[in-house]
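Page 42, continued from yesterday. The earlier attempt failed because a stray header line got pasted into the input along with the sequence. Redoing it now with the clean sequence only.
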Amino acid sequence: MANAARKLTQDESATAAAASDVTVIPVQSTADREAFIHFPYKLYRDDPNWVPPLIMERRDFLDPKKNPWFEFGAVELFLARRNGEVVGRIAAVKDPRYNEFHGTRVGFFGLFESIDDVRVARGLFDAAAGWVKAHGFESMMGPVNFSTNYECSTLIEGFDAPPVVMMAYNPRYYPALFDACGFQKAKDLWAWELSSAVEPPEKVVRIAEKIRARDGIVVRPVNIKEFDREVRIIKDIYNSAWEKNWGFVPMTEKEFDHLARDMKQMVVPDLLLIAEVNGEPVAFSMTLPDANIALKAAGGRLTRYGLPIGLAKLLLASRKIKRLRLITLGIKAGYRRRGLDAILYLDTLRTARRLGYTGGEISWTLEDNDLVNRAIESMGGRRYKTYRLYQRPL
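This time it went through. Structure tokens are written below.
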């Protein structure tokens, strides 16, 4: 089946590109994979807002031996070339856990990058669609890299500010490419900006503190010395909190543990909060320093000429980070609409002030999650970026 899918994809790619000088073929060699990884560094070299990821991290992400997502998922990588020069890339993605959980037949695409040329974009999308269709899917959605638990979506509003840690970024012309290639909106995701100098409404504070006292709610930071135990607690809350959310995919044990290990080096314990009711952990929130500020200083590499130049720049820049990203806030079923979200927002804001952070981003939220969006607005949040997931039938 895998070989048949590859043959079909190559044939369809050649057909899609026949009327142009663009060729789209699967990544087959180590050199192809390196070209796939390095293409964004060329595409964004003159964009002051782009944050180059670490090349070593991108290699690990695409390595089935190092990324536990590959234990159940499958990916085909494609490169678009014109006259031998790489002009675009895309990944076709099969995520059986998503389809089992939602009862759907959806394939995905991700890691999409292209020059501003509809012929290039169409060739890439058609190649990914051919592979996805050959695996029995009825529609294709993305960008998703490789799950909604990781980076996903396309920026459509808010290009004037650089992305925060683990959020997408792309050129302004991408939405036009999606439209020209037959995609339609699947869902918008929102990002909110909040200054730590903004005072939350007195009424919100009063009600939150009343609920805290009445229900015996205790909010505590994680104990970093008992990190594995704390991760198990958060994992339990996570899978309960989002099980009914649009696009949610429960992570495997290995995925969750792998992600937790990666994030441990970024965690500020006082900003990773667990809320307990009568001693039972029922909610958590995780706010991280915006590591993109440090990553930008490193320029994609920790070493140059055999010396840890990039690492030194990263460590120096990390000391100057004053912005945060509230990356997730989850509440177990049965404990929602009881003010726990307001309590966690308030405690995060107070801690951020105490630690000297100036503010940051809350992201992402679903456009139609009115309960969460109203809560953020009530705390003084301002929606300043919009991201979009696209879909098209096959």
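Notes: The first helix runs from residue 2 to 17.
Reminder to self: strip header lines before submitting.
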